[in-house]
Design goal:
The chain is built from three helices and no strands. It is mostly helical. The chain has a domain at 14-55. The longest helix has 30 residues, at 7-36.
């Protein structure tokens, strides 16, 4: 069994969260559109994705991938 922080489990968790955000956004769009007649309610989809991303995103994951191997924080290669 894999550990809770394994990359595959993390990827699956993010995929499930992404699909849930899309479904909830569509639900809000459909309900709001039927009540008010405005399709602007479907903007809930990208808005919900953005808000959830602010809570879920880990900037350290991005920085780890962008640093070449053998470099320090200063960006200069090790001697």
């Amino acid at each position: 069994m894999s550990s809770p922080s394994s990359p595959a489990r993390s990827r699956l968790h993010r995929l499930v969260l992404f699909v849930a955000c899309i479904c909830i956004g569509i639900l809000v769009g459909v309900i709001g559109s039927r009540i008010t007649g405005s399709d602007h309610w479907f903007l809930a989809i990208p808005a919900l994705l953005a808000v959830v991303w602010l809570f879920v995103a880990d900037p350290n994951e991005c920085q780890r991938c962008s640093q070449p191997a053998g470099t320090k924080d200063s960006g200069k290669p090790d001697a």
